[in-house]
């Protein structure tokens, strides 16, 4: 039985950033102390609420809040289950890291940064919590509107050019979203996700074609955001042009598309969906495989770290889409583990890139260990005297963080990227009816993409940290490096506590494959039939 406190807590991840962002619009940006305090306090409160919901949903299942006390499917419902709570925690963690990193200088690079950042969190949290497609569209638009401001935050020609691609493609995706939702509503008469799951098996043959057409159009809108090939041409350029904290948060925005596709594919097109069961699964599988291949080529071809990070996002999205296409509970459990680890790793990498490349501002092509460390090459005696000289602390710290990011992105042991890929490969190689060709293809691409990431990161690391040339050391503040270190420590913790984390992912996957509990939590129980009257004795 859900407690009122936890039910009300479902609303706060949406309400709190909305109110805080609107409140900060009343004050001038020069009141930075006030705005930083309110924003950081809001983000920390969101993290605390997300963790509380994660623990609560793990113990008692889905928690539902009917806004205005109108029951589903007539009213607005917000639903927190294991999957949505996990996404809330990831969002709050990335928000903490990105916002603290921005306090060094990026929060002063443009107007209304604090409110835009909080509105982005509102849109993200709402998309993960909403229980109906119409409000999913509302939160989707709030998220995109805030992201438009973050893409352009800091101005510059590169960001304006990226925005000219990013904004129109997302406006088209929003239009497709509306068309798809309209078709679905026209056939079923409802947009509540749980109610849809109950009505889909009863749709007639003529209406089913129209319904599946609407679902396909809706899927395209989210596959644009999930960056499936060939709909992902905009992503590497946009993410590489955005400021470091914005790009780190965009790593989470890409997962909104993944979340919605995972949620709807198993809720609306699961085994209990009648003739529509498994609709679109093959498209997700083969599109995901193509996305991994495209991202792998991009990783190898990238000549700059921002584009390398952007193509790493594509590899992550392709891996998750392929796993969803298989639809197996064990594969999706490993994919959820991979979703968490890859999102954290890419966030840390985007933040680290700015610190590593900061030496370019002084005219250097790379941040390198200076000649004073290795000797100036004026004779063997000089070089011998310099043997054993310690690296500068800044370069050592950045190099260590870069090394851990390389292990995470390549999926090498012992970090969670390896554990997640191993879990997926193990599930792919132990099917009920032999290993299919598509399973072998995914296994090969998982190994190949990891090897490509290792080669690309090793090449970049050598060119960046192991070049004995004159270069000024970067000036790195503690407030900038601390978020990177914190995210990497969380990734290491996911390895140390791998067993309970994997247990949570497995239970989440099983719950997604058995949506009856979700539907039962959202939809009101039908009234019990009245007991027949018992005749009185003697009549």
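^ Assign residues to that structure.
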């Amino acid at each position: 039985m859900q407690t009122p406190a936890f039910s009300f807590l479902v609303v706060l991840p949406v309400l709190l950033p909305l109110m805080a962002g609107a409140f900060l619009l009343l004050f001038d940006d020069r009141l930075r102390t006030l705005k930083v305090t309110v924003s950081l306090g809001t983000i920390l409160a969101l993290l605390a609420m997300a963790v509380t919901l994660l623990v609560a949903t793990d113990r008692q299942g889905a928690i539902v809040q009917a806004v205005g006390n109108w029951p589903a499917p007539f009213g607005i419902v917000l639903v927190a289950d294991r999957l949505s709570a996990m996404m809330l925690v990831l969002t709050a963690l990335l928000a903490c890291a990105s916002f603290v990193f921005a306090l060094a200088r990026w929060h002063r690079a443009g107007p209304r940064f604090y409110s835009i950042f909080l509105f982005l969190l509102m849109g993200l949290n709402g998309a993960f919590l909403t229980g109906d497609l119409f409000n999913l569209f509302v939160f989707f638009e709030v998220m995109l509107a805030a992201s438009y401001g973050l893409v352009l935050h800091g101005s510059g020609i590169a960001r304006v050019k990226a925005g000219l691609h990013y904004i129109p493609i997302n406006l088209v995706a929003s239009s497709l979203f509306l068309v798809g939702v309209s078709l679905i509503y026209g056939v079923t008469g409802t947009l509540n996700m749980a109610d849809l799951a109950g009505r889909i098996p009863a749709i007639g043959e003529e209406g089913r074609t129209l319904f599946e057409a609407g679902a396909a159009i809706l899927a395209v809108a989210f596959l644009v955001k999930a960056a499936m090939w060939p709909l992902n041409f905009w992503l590497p350029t946009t993410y590489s042009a955005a400021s470091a904290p914005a790009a780190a948060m965009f790593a989470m925005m890409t997962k909104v598309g993944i979340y919605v596709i995972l949620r709807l594919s198993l809720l609306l097109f699961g085994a209990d969906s009648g003739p529509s069961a498994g609709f679109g699964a093959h498209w997700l599988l083969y599109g995901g495989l193509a996305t991994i291949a495209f991202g792998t080529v991009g990783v190898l071809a990238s000549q700059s770290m921002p584009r390398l990070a952007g193509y790493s996002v594509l590899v992550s999205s392709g891996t998750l889409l392929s796993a969803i296409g298989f639809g197996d509970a064990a594969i999706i459990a490993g994919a959820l583990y991979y979703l968490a680890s890859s999102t954290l790793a890419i966030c840390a990498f985007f933040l680290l890139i700015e610190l590593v490349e900061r030496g370019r501002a002084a005219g250097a092509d790379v941040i390198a260990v200076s000649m004073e460390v290795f000797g100036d090459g004026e004779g063997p005696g000089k070089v011998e005297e310099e043997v054993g000289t310690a690296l500068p602390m800044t370069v050592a710290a950045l190099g260590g963080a870069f090394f851990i990011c390389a292990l995470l992105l390549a999926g090498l042991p012992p970090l969670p990227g390896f554990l997640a890929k191993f879990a997926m490969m193990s599930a792919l190689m132990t099917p009920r009816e032999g290993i299919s060709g598509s399973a072998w293809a995914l296994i090969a691409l998982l190994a190949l993409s990891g090897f490509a990431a290792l080669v690309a990161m090793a090449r970049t690391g050598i060119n960046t940290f192991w070049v004995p040339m004159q270069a000024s050391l970067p000036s790195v503040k503690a407030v900038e490096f601390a978020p990177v270190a914190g995210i990497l420590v969380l990734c290491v913790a996911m390895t140390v506590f791998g067993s309970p984390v994997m247990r949570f992912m497995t239970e989440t996957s099983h719950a997604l494959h058995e949506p009856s509990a979700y539907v039962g939590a959202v939809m009101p129980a039908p009234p019990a039939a009245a007991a027949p009257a018992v005749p009185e004795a003697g009549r």
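Residues 157-188 form the longest helix (32 residues).
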